[in-house]
Amino acid sequence: MRYLWQRFKPFAYFMIAAEVAVLLGKIYQSFGDFSFAPWELLKMSAVLALTSVIAFMYMMIPYLLFLLILPQSKQNSRLDKVVTVVMFTTFVYTGLFQVAATQIFWNEFQAAFNFIAVDYLVYTNEVVMNIWESYPVVWILSALLLITIGVVKLAYKHLFTEIPAPSFGGKLWRSGVYVLVLVAAYFAVDMSRLEICNNAMNNEGAKEGTYSLFSAFLKNELPYNRFYMVQDEQENLRILQQKLGGKNVEFLAPDEGIARKITSAKPEKKANVIVVLMESMSSEYMNENLPEGHMKITPNLEKLSKESLYFSNAYANGTRSVRGIEALTLSVPPLPGMSIVRRQNNENLHSIGSIFKQKGYDNKWIYGGFGYFDNMNYFFGNNGFQIVDRKVWDKDDISFVNAWGASDEDTFRKVIKEADKSYAEGKPFLSMILTISNHRPYTYPEGKIPLESGKWGRIGGVMYADYAIGQLVEEAKTKPWFDNTIFVFVADHTAGASGKEQINLEGHHIPLMFYAPKLIKPQRIETPVSQIDALPTLLGLLNFDYESRFYGQDALGEDYESRFFVSNYQKIGYVKNGTDVILKPVRQMAVEGVAVSDAALQKQLSEAIAFYQQADEWEQNLKQD
Fold first, then answer.
1. Can you tell me whether residue 249 is helix, strand or coil?
2. Whether the Cβ atoms of residue 280 and residue 438 lie closer than 8 Å to each other
3. Which pLDDT belongs to residue 568?
4. Among 427, 421, 456, which residue's Cα sits nearest to residue 440?
5. Residues ≥6 apart with Cβ < 8 Å to 439
6. Whose CB among 6, 37, 176, 314 lies 3.0–4.6 Å from 161's, allowing a Cys bridge?
């Protein structure tokens, strides 16, 4: 083993230096969010050391195989030196690339590599173009190459050893032990069990990049019943029917599920609906929430908030666009692992599409990018929507485009054009839109706002997105269908959800507005509501009679009870009256926020389990005959 250590030592020393650099970079970017308590630092360092050792052993397998087949007589030969130098150079450059990639990912998500990174690897074109437009890629790669050359020169004489290599049998035996250690580590060391720090940011800082990435790749889905706290299914059903029942609600099969008939005492409105899912539009960007003296960046949303039914304390399900889509279309809590939008067998679900289609609406999913990203086109196309993404747009529909797609102004012009078509055909319409411009690289048409495109980062993206919304409303006002149209403006998620807490509630705070000057009386509602309540509230405003299998509720209903759902990767939360009950793998829970009595906490925990455990049976619950 002394021979192996001498051959591995330069690789190991470099990796230690790289991991220290990564950790220092994370701390530098999020200094205020880390805990520097000695016990927290010790736990963080221990987890980082463990995952780094395992990752290192995996990465050294190719070199181990080379040393295994290298004859004793060829030790320190030209062949040995060439292969070793090539492998070490590759190891160093790859390691430096990971350092840079980790810092970029941390800057965007304040997290170690996770299933978001895995998802992004699937959509190489968009991600590569986004990085290319956002960062000086050529300079970064060139700098990494120069550093690699320097490291290789410094380490060259230490790459070889005069210690005699063991015989082939000896090397084979040692390699077998090596592999057994890795197999044991695969089954015994799970990333979800390594979050032992009390501070969420310390937990993320402790994750070695390569280990974290491959762990997410191999263990992307988390079946609720296997990893989270459970309780009797009949108790779940009792809790949910009590929570989701009320006036004008009739459960269709009380012994089986939450399917229910919802009726309205008022005449049905066949109003058009335009749902604008605003990319990363955190509530913190609303002018009313900006620090005193800050540049006003959302004048149009501010104006709309005063003219709309405005829920000023709405909370997003998660941290990805697919979570926002899931909440607005299916009204389900955020299940751990992948969103239903990206899962298999998600066709023909009970959704906003199926309900409006039954009512005779012309449903369209309109997106300025290519909707194969995140499986959006497949999901909408198989759940009652016509796909109108960039692939089917005419060339003259696009005046500005970046890595993610057409500008928000282009998208909204397309929305107007498609609404005109539906109106001309005498059909009420439902249009769902996901905006793009408030996303890195934050580029947009010049001359629209005072901030130069691509130079102001997120602030510029927010201001332009707000400008485009103002243009949409003004153009829509000139149309004959405007007076009979409800606009829903809601963020898909916030611009960042990191913090010291395991789930940062303010990192899920989003605006939610229902705007229809001729149909809805302006009102500001401070009551906290969930993103999954947006759809039932919309259906309530339309006075629809419909079958519901949704977990959200009409936030204007007299039986409404304020609560909301949040998630952050593997953690899922249920929040009431400021108390956040968090469910975690493996069958663990935590509580943050306002302290409550043991009885109240147990009641809230039972409610949380009921919602999430029952929602995990989404195929059975949502599939239509």
1. strand
2. yes
3. 82
4. 456
5. 130, 279, 280, 404, 461
6. 6
Kindly state the tokens that stand for 40: 């927290």
> Which DSSP string do the residues of 391-448 spell out, in sequence order?
GGS-GGG-S-B-SS-B-HHHHHHHHHHHHHHHHHTT--EEEEEE--SSSTT----TTS
Longest dimension (CA), the chain: 91
Measure the CA–CA gap between 512 and 529, rounded to whole angstroms.
9
Please give the Cα distance from 182 to 162 (Å, whole number). 28
- Cβ pair 293, 507 in contact under 8 A: no
Instruction: Report yes or no: 516 and 273 within 8 Å, Cβ to Cβ.
Output: no
| C-alpha triplet 537, 498, 513: angle, nearest 5° | 20
311 bridge partner residues:
512, 525
Please report where in the chains the tokens 């793998």 appear, as a residue: 585
Closest CA to 170 of 76, 61, 68: 68
Complete DSSP assignment for 302-341: HHHHHHSEEEEEEE-S-SSHHHHHHHHHH-----SSS-GG
- Tell which residue, 503, 485, 482, has the closest CA to residue 570: 503
Q: Is the dihedral of CA 260, 261, 265, 269 positive or negative?
A: positive
Mean pLDDT for each consecutive 10-residue tract of the chain (625 residues)?
A: 85 93 90 90 92 90 90 88 94 93 81 69 65 86 95 92 82 87 83 78 85 69 79 95 92 90 95 98 95 93 98 95 96 92 93 97 97 93 97 95 94 98 97 95 95 94 98 98 98 82 89 97 97 98 97 95 90 94 88 93 97 94 88
Using CA atoms, how far apart are residues 503 and 522, in angstroms rounded to an integer? 32
| pLDDT given at position 526 | 97
3-state secondary structure 547-573: EECCCCCCCCCCCCCCCEEEEECCEEE
Identify the residue whose tokens are 């690699």.
148
Taking a C-beta distance cutoff of 8 angstroms, is the pair 240, 611 a contact?
A: yes
* Residue 485 phi, psi dihedral angles, 5° rounding: -130, 135
Contact 106, 29 (CB under 8 A): yes
Q: How many CB atoms lie within 10 A of CB 485?
A: 22
Prior bond of 441 cis (ω within 30°): yes
Please report which helix (H) or strand (E) contains residue 250, including its range. Answer: strand 249-251
In sign, the C-alpha dihedral spanning 592, 597, 598, 604 is negative
Radius of gyration for the alpha carbons in the chain, expressed in angstroms and rounded: 27
pLDDT for the residue numbered 331? 98
Closest CA to 104 of 123, 85, 117: 117
Cβ atoms 464, 406 nearer than 8 A: no
